[in-house]
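Duplicate of #3305? Posting structure anyway:
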């Protein structure tokens, strides 16, 4: 289980991995917002982030697949795809009209300090 659930100090690296996957797949990170930490499900805390990425349909699919297959438990949820407006696409250097923006939340789980103490970690 230790390989699937990151420790608190690894969460920033995990978010960097997602950003790196975006660069590899050629999508642009347009939004990254940390959300409040939530207790549960026991014995974990849930860390949530909102992402917005812009790219073509196939690039977004490959990126989301990469995120879902990282070695830690990361759950993309609430995915929404919308066309990027022409002005924003032009700023990004695209005139094809094929750009989409995917907004979604990412959940990851951290073992709580009390759970770590109980298990002797």
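Output from current build:
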């Amino acid at each position: 289980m230790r390989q699937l659930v990151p420790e608190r100090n690894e969460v920033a690296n995990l978010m960097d991995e997602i950003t790196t996957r975006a660069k590899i797949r050629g999508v642009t990170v347009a939004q990254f917002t940390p959300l409040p930490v939530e207790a549960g499900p026991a014995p974990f805390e849930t860390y949530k982030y909102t992402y917005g990425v812009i790219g073509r349909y196939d690039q977004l699919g490959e990126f989301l697949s990469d995120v879902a297959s990282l070695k830690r438990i990361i759950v993309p949820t609430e995915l929404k795809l919308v066309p990027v407006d022409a002005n924003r696409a032009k700023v990004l250097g695209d005139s094809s009209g094929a750009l989409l923006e995917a907004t979604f939340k990412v959940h990851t789980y951290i073992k709580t300090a009390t759970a770590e103490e109980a298990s002797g970690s």
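Confirmed duplicate; merging threads. The mean pLDDT is 84. The two ends are 12 Å apart (CA to CA).
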